Amino acid sequence: MPQSPTSLVLSSRQFEEVFLEYRPVFVRRAYRYVRDNEIAEDIVSDSFMTFWEGRGMLPEDVNVPAYIFTIVRNRCLNYLRDKAVHLQAAHTIHSSQRRLVEADIASLTACNPDRLFQEEIFSILQRALDKMPEKTRTVFLKSRFSGMSYNDISEELGILPSGVHLEIHRGLNILRSELKDYLPALLLIIGGLHNQ
Amino acid sequence: MEDITLLKFIRNEATPQELDAVLDWLDASPENRKYLNSLDDTDFALDLWTRRLKDTQRAPAARRLDWRRIVRWTTSAAAVILLGLGSGFFLYKHQMAQIAGQRLETTAPKGQRMQVKLGDGTSVWLNAGSSIAYPPIFAGKERRVRLSGEAIFEVVHDENCPFVVETFACDARVLGTRFDIVADEDAGTFSAALLEGKLQLVNRMSDETVMMTPNEIVRLRHGKLYRQQLSDHDDYLWPEGIISLKGLSFGELMTKLERAFNVRIVIKRDQLPDANFGWGKIAVSSGVEHALEVLQCAADFRYEIDKDSGVITIL
After folding, report:
1. Which domain holds residue B287?
2. Residue closest to B4 by CA, chosen among A76, A151, A34, A194
3. CATH domain A122-180 topology
4. Is the CB of residue A6 less than 8 Å from the CB of residue A56?
């Protein structure tokens, strides 16, 4: 039974909130794969538009940000695949550029929005951050949120640059191992792609 | 491969040499690809988690945009990019720099109550129009938040890390407990009601300290703290959307209704009606007109609601 076009998934006010809240995050994510700011911005803006125009057709319990991000992801994939074709056709000698596009396609294919947008993830992250030793957490958060360079952190906290690297590695490891059980499907997909 | 290099790769900051090294490394083993993917997921999850941080600077009023404006904005994104504002990564860095040492701030909209879960599992019920500032994660010897307005706290017990509620007037220091605080700087009122556990109050002006026991309320009057027994918990039912009428003057009741229902009430009478309710509760869900009708049973007044502006006039 198709949804009637009047069944609104969310009001314009709610859409605006989702837009303001997620747009910057999505642009950064799109940038990570397409590696071009303008294209990332365009893809994200278009994805929000596509969602808004088609919202009447969506089931009411749709996870809105996850849905919008799925559009972003698919558009990024299309872009990268086009680019790969062009690079191939142009017989580019820049083989590393082609390899990069292929690596990014593989990474993006592995990204599963439905899993990443579940609320549980946030409590897992919270728990992981709580688990970190004080020093690890301080270094990790500073590098992530204060925009400080590794050298700045090393100077401010009076630890060696190698120590900063170590703490960041430690922090990431704790986070990754906490998230690992939660995001297992990704790993399988990637294994498969690699063998192509 | 070092995480630092992989992060540079993810953020498109790697040098051509590093790029080639990462690509070789990725091709070397499927395990390496998995590693990069989990790093990507971690990075994305962290970013999603902290997205709220970026809203802290934005006043609620500034966020009231018309969606048509947004759509216009999205379609003109290309122009924005030409202006050089579009750099996603620049924005990222810039926003991250802004966050340095900052706190999340949540305000319950007028006419709505809101529950906030803090990093340590503590839950906070914010009454309409009240706001709380808190760090995304508690790190350090204290869990410190700042409140303006009214909130009920259910603090998760942690003996080694006291929970401190900072207000304009007093700091409340707890280990684990349930309590309600009213700290309205504009009206100059402060009170703390302890429902469970233990609570220490420190007057910011005089350093006067009061140790509270359950079922006590402490009010600030003329810069001093006064202690009283709580006879019941009716005043603390607001998280469930229930307003207690008991003991409030007509003026106080109108202020409560304005906040709870997000309406403007204008009183156009020289003398306020008497309204000393010995008891009585109103459910917010029944609507403001119902609330006024209930009040009319005990207080002598008439009211008019302007259909266009929604302003309620008490006559």
Report:
1. 241-314
2. A151
3. Arc Repressor Mutant, subunit A (1.10.10)
4. yes
B44 and B70 fall within a common domain = no
A73 confidence band (pLDDT: 50, 70, 90): very high
Domain count, chain B: 4
The confidence band for A151, taking pLDDT boundaries of 50, 70 and 90, is confident
- Asked if the Cβ–Cβ distance from B92 to A24 is below 8 Å, we say yes
CA distance A143 to B99: 12
Gap between the Cα atoms of A22 and A26, Å rounded: 6
Interchain CB distance below 8 Å, A165 and B4:
yes
Banded model confidence at residue B7, pLDDT cuts 50, 70, 90: confident
Q: Are residues B113 and B227 part of one domain?
A: yes
Distance from CA of B135 to the nearest CA of A (A): 12
Identify the CATH number of the domain in which residue B269 sits: 3.55.50.30
Which residue, B177, B94, B163, is CA-closest to B135? B163
Least confidently predicted of B83-87, B185-189, B196-200, B214-218: B83-87
Q: How far is B57 from chain A (nearest CA, A)?
A: 13
Statement to judge: residues B90 and B115 lie in one domain? no
